[in-house]
Specification:
The chain is mainly alpha-helical. The chain has 2 domains: about 170 residues, Growth Hormone, Chain: A; about 210 residues, Growth Hormone, Chain: A, CATH 1.20.1250. Helices cover about 70% and strands about 0% of the residues. It has a two-stranded antiparallel sheet. Strand 1 and strand 2 form a beta hairpin. Helix 2 runs antiparallel to helix 13. The longest helix has 29 residues. It is globular. About 50% of the residues are buried.
Length: about 425
């Protein structure tokens, strides 16, 4: 299997919709800071609005994702994206409104479309061959990395060169325009029956908690890089302005990692592969905290981006083994909320520690928290696999989709990657 398996008009249409739905998400935090910076208490107000936006995402993703009907997801996605566009439009149209009203708009902009990433990911895997799921998720990760690499420059240029409200109005227009593209995609996906046995969606999602914990750990390291890096560079006597190019290198590394992951099969089962990748990312961030030379910091961040992208793809593919197809959109939405919580928790810990310790020490404390979460997730997955008679083996035996046994098929291209046989 190759990336040719995901090259189709429907995947192109999906990509256009995904850009319209996700570009506003990437633009939002920085755009909210620029919106408030010229008002009294500007940066504090901007941080408050960004917090309201993130809280909306964390609340909305599982709440709305669990209510999405697999066979009729399109109206649900359209309503959420339109409501999110209304939230962004309110922020851009009334920048001088009371902070409470702006917070409501920010919460709406974050919460209403929060189920869209999970729904769109499930739609993507519905329009590609089963053998190409790993390649599809790798392509999605590359697209997401590109969006996050472009968004900061777009927001900064529009906010400073035109007006602070313009990025938010653009976000509203992009999100509203993405709704039209939904009608070029299937209305939903097969709800499936495998692995359900009458079990409720809530209980199915609860069984997948180790995957969410490891997913939260994978993005918490990104939080460390983004939030502590400027202070770390200042500690090293390096110009803080280098943080932008260094983080761009991290994003480009993520795109490369996603590309490479989808090019071939990889040895080991999902749990083993995820732990190895997370340990590798943790080692890279530890080097960032300890190395004084900015050039080597750049190298460590690029490698961290490569490994972090592969870790997130592995986590998303692991959900396909744990959950039946009808629960996947809800599972992806819960994952979206979990990684947001991990990002916020690690960033808050590092931010609090910066008042008492050096930036390098705060970063190392965040790495320790990430490794603890990784260990908890790995142990939880081990317990779940031993408790489930239909769980997949780690050594390339029969795998599962939604808890049902699949017959083992020959490896492709000499590899032993069970995920590429989904």
């Amino acid at each position: 299997m190759t990336y040719r398996d995901v090259a189709s008009p429907q995947v192109l249409a999906w990509a256009v919709v995904a850009v319209g739905a996700r570009m506003p998400v990437a633009m939002a935090p920085l755009a909210l800071v620029f919106l408030a910076r010229d008002r009294p208490g500007g940066y504090a107000l901007g941080a408050t609005l960004a917090a309201a936006y993130v809280i909306g995402e964390i609340v909305g993703a599982p709440l709305l994702g669990m209510r999405m009907r697999p066979d009729a997801a399109r109206p649900h996605l359209a309503a959420g994206l339109l409501a999110g566009a209304a939230g962004f439009a309110g922020l851009g149209a009334f920048p001088a409104a009371h902070p409470a009203l702006l917070s409501v708009f920010a919460f709406l902009a974050g919460g209403a479309p929060a189920a869209a990433p999970g729904g769109l990911r499930t739609l993507l895997t519905a329009v590609v061959p089963r053998r190409a799921f790993a390649q599809a998720l790798s392509a999605e990760s590359m697209l997401t990395s590109g969006i996050w690499a472009v968004s900061p420059a777009a927001v900064t240029g529009l906010a400073l060169g035109v007006a602070p409200r313009v990025p938010l109005l653009l976000a509203a227009a992009l999100m509203a325009a993405s709704v039209g593209g939904l009608w070029l995609l299937p209305p939903g996906w097969d709800p499936g029956t495998e692995g359900r046995d009458g079990t409720s969606i809530s209980r199915l999602l609860a069984r997948a908690w180790p995957v969410y914990v490891t997913g939260a750990a994978s993005l918490s390291l990104l939080s460390l890089a983004e939030l502590v890096l400027p202070a770390l560079l200042e500690q090293r006597g390096t110009a803080v302005g280098w943080s932008g190019p260094l983080l761009t290198g991290l994003a480009l590394g993520s795109a490369v990692g996603a590309l490479v992951y989808g090019l071939r099969s990889w040895p080991g089962g999902p749990r083993t592969r995820s732990v190895v990748l997370m340990c590798g990312v943790s080692a890279c961030v530890t080097l960032v905290a300890l190395i004084p030379d900015p050039a080597w910091i750049a190298v460590a961040l690029v490698v961290a981006g490569v490994l972090q992208a592969a870790a997130m793809i592995t986590r998303n593919l692991s959900l396909r083994e744990v959950l039946p197809s009808g629960a996947l959109a809800a599972g992806y939405s819960v994952m979206y909320a979990a990684v947001g919580v991990g990002y916020a928790a690690t960033g808050s810990l590092a931010g609090a520690l910066l008042h008492f310790v050096a930036p390098s020490t705060a970063m190392l404390a965040g790495v320790a928290l990430t490794l603890a979460l990784t260990a908890v997730g790995a142990l939880g997955e081990g317990v779940r696999r031993r408790a489930s008679p239909s769980a997949a083996g780690e050594d390339g035996g029969a795998g599962t989709v939604g808890g049902s046994r699949r017959a083992e098929r020959p490896a492709v291209g000499g590899g032993r990657d069970p995920e590429c046989r989904l």
